[in-house]
């Protein structure tokens, strides 16, 4: 698919001022200004993320009430239930908050709703479980911000709620004891992009501060928090950058027992970065809730020792992940077949596909794969317990949540954000939803938004790719949303005569300009091989290291050529 190249801008005067202050490569200064780093002090904080710069958790609206209610529950020996969503963010949040309180308070349990029998968020079944087992306080993590009716139901049963969520609220927040969510319009917390686990982390940080508990007791869960930040694709800026930086250090040096075992079973032998968290650990944690029950993930993450159970749990998660891969490949192939066989579907500006037999646990992944293929807002639907349930994914700069909101009269419930959402509807509404969604998308989306965008940070020459330059780039890590690994373009390079197609779909590059020659790999770029062999071309890439037989040298990870 052809991509639209966009070179990011940076204010030249700000770049010069930063260069004068830092005395480092001007290109690095340009990259920093693009990321909002404009002064020496901002650069110092960026390059040396410090836990001392975390915000006071009591700045979050509702935090005093939340901490005081937990303190009362502990003083009165009330039963506390830690409740969380079944994805990575929810399970790491539950593991973090449960493990923290369990160290000094035994009257506590955790609950994860079943994806298939209860669905997303706070469930009636979960509240009934709490009532039947005499819990009087539920701490909900990574969910609950729109569960007004469920909180009201719990109140009737004498159960209080503390909600810790990071999704967008509705018109009214639930009538809970405390609702912690920086996205509330009436919340002045300085950083708005914490993960669900991040909100849970701020809760235990506040409790520790008020009760003279050593901060090390809170920071020991930074690896779990780092996992949630990476897997939930939240911006790696501000507090998230600090938490990810230190979380990766812990993950690589002294992870919690469950993550240590999961790394071992996944065959991880190198230092992990955010990409590894997203593609190695995240899917294995997620697979538990997709294939069976997310409680298996929490059980592993709260394990205190490497014993038979934790080993078996880690191996089970690994097995679930293999099953998940087989399922999502098969369903993706089937969905592509459905779209390809129907000219009307091919020519739409949105994709809505439905099959009642598809596995509910992987339709979000399938929606992402279809979006990658057709690059348009996509909804994948299946049937579960007599209802149609779906996952949706968007393209850059198109607000998926708003589009689904305009179809709300056809839905039983829905939730999510700009780029990803979920929904439930009656089977008889599927066709009407598909037509309405297409109508809404067609009315809102621009032709430009239907072409994938390749953002380029700067134009450089091949001779500027040096070990020193690469080391400076690496100091900008951890990379992730809003601080992605830099992408460069070099104009009018030529094939050195050694470029070739490998494994059918990829190009192994060897390019030259002036006196500099550099190698690279371009995944899936084989269709552009003739361009590489016949003319000078522009090349877009990231810089990486390639290690072969003990030799390390710089290479390009090629994104596109033109």
In short:
This protein has 562 residues and is an alpha/beta fold. 42% of the residues lie in helices and 20% in strands.
Question: What keywords describe this structure?
Answer:
globular; alpha/beta; 19 strands; 562 residues; five-stranded parallel β-sheet; five-stranded mixed β-sheet
Can you walk through the features of this model?
- The chain is built from 21 helices and 19 strands.
- It is an alpha/beta fold.
- The strands form four sheets. It has a five-stranded parallel beta sheet, sandwiched between helices. The chain has a five-stranded mixed beta sheet with strand order 7-8-9-11-10, with helices on both faces. The protein has a five-stranded mixed β-barrel with strand order 14-16-17-19-18.
- Strand 18 and strand 19 form a beta hairpin.
- 43% of the residues are buried.
Say how many strands there are: 19
Mean pLDDT, to the nearest integer, reads: 95
- Whole-Å distance between the termini? 12 Å
Strand order of the largest sheet: 3-2-4-5-6
Contiguous low-pLDDT stretches (5 residues minimum) are: none
Major sheet details: 5 strands, parallel
Topology:
Blueprint (H helix, E strand, L loop, with lengths): L3 E4 L4 H11 L3 H9 L5 H8 L15 H13 L3 E6 L3 H15 L5 E4 L12 H9 L2 E7 L6 H9 L3 E5 L13 E3 L15 H15 L5 H4 L2 H10 L6 H16 L3 H9 L8 H18 L3 H7 L6 H33 L2 H4 L4 E4 L8 H12 L3 E7 L2 E7 L6 H6 L7 E4 L3 E6 L4 H15 L8 E4 L1 E2 L7 H8 L13 E8 L4 E3 L3 E8 L2 E7 L6 H6 L2 E12 L2 E11 L1
Parallel strand pairs: 1-12, 2-3, 2-4, 4-5, 5-6, 7-8, 13-14, 17-19
Antiparallel strand pairs: 8-9, 9-11, 10-11, 14-16, 14-18, 15-16, 16-17, 18-19
Helix pairs in contact: 1-2, 4-8, 5-8, 5-10, 5-14, 8-10, 10-11, 10-13, 12-15, 13-15, 14-15, 15-17
């Amino acid at each position: 698919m052809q991509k639209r190249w966009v070179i990011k801008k940076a204010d030249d005067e700000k770049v010069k001022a930063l260069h004068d202050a830092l005395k480092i490569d001007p290109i690095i200064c340009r990259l920093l200004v693009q990321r909002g780093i404009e002064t020496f002090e901002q650069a110092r904080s960026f390059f040396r993320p410090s836990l001392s710069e975390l915000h006071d958790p009591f700045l979050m609206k509702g935090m005093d009430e939340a901490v005081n209610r937990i303190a009362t529950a502990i003083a009165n020996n009330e039963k506390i239930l830690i409740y969380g969503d079944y994805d990575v963010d929810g399970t790491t949040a539950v593991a973090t908050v449960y493990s923290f309180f369990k160290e000094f308070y035994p009257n506590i349990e955790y609950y994860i709703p079943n994806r298939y029998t209860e669905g997303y968020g706070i469930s009636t079944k979960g509240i009934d479980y709490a009532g039947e087992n005499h819990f009087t306080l539920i701490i909900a993590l990574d969910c609950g911000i729109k569960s007004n009716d469920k909180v009201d139901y719990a109140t009737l049963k004498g159960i209080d709620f503390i909600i810790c969520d990071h999704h967008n609220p509705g018109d009214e927040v639930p009538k809970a004891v405390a609702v912690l969510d920086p996205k509330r319009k009436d919340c002045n917390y300085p950083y708005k992009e914490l993960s669900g686990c991040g909100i849970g982390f701020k809760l235990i940080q506040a409790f520790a501060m008020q009760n003279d508990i050593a901060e090390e007791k809170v920071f020991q869960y930074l690896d779990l928090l780092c996992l949630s930040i990476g897997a939930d694709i939240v911006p790696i800026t501000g507090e998230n950058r600090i938490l990810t930086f230190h979380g990766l250090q812990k993950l690589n040096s002294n992870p919690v027992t469950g993550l240590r075992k999961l790394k071992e079973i996944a065959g991880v032998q190198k230092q992990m970065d955010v990409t590894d968290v997203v593609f190695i650990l995240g899917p294995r944690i997620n697979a538990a809730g997709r294939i069976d029950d997310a409680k298996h993930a929490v059980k592993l993450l709260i394990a205190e020792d490497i014993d038979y159970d934790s080993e078996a749990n880690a191996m089970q998660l690994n097995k679930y992940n293999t099953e998940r891969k087989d399922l999502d490949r098969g369903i993706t192939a089937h969905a592509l077949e459905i779209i390809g066989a129907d000219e009307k579907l091919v020519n739409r500006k949105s994709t809505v596909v439905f099959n009642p037999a598809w596995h509910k646990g992987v339709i979000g992944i399938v929606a992402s794969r279809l979006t990658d293929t057709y690059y348009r807002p996509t909804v994948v639907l299946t049937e579960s317990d007599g209802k149609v349930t779906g996952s949706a994914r968007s393209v850059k700069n198109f607000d998926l949540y708003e589009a689904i909101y305009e179809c709300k009269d056809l839905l039983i419930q829905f939730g999510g954000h700009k780029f990803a959402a979920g929904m439930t509807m009656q089977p008889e509404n599927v066709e009407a939803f598909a037509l309405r969604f297409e109508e809404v998308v067609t009315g809102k989306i621009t032709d430009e938004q239907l072409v994938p965008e390749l953002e380029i940070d700067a134009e450089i020459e091949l001779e500027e790719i040096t070990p020193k330059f690469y080391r400076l780039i690496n100091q900008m890590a951890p990379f992730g949303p809003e601080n992605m690994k830099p992408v460069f373009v070099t104009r009018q390079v030529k094939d050195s005569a050694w470029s070739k197609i490998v494994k059918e779909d990829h190009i192994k590059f060897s390019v030259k300009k002036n006196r500099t020659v550099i190698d690279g790999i371009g995944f899936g770029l084989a269709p552009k091989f003739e361009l590489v062999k016949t003319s000078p071309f522009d090349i877009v890439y990231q810089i990486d290291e390639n290690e072969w037989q003990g030799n390390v040298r710089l290479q390009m990870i090629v994104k596109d050529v033109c």
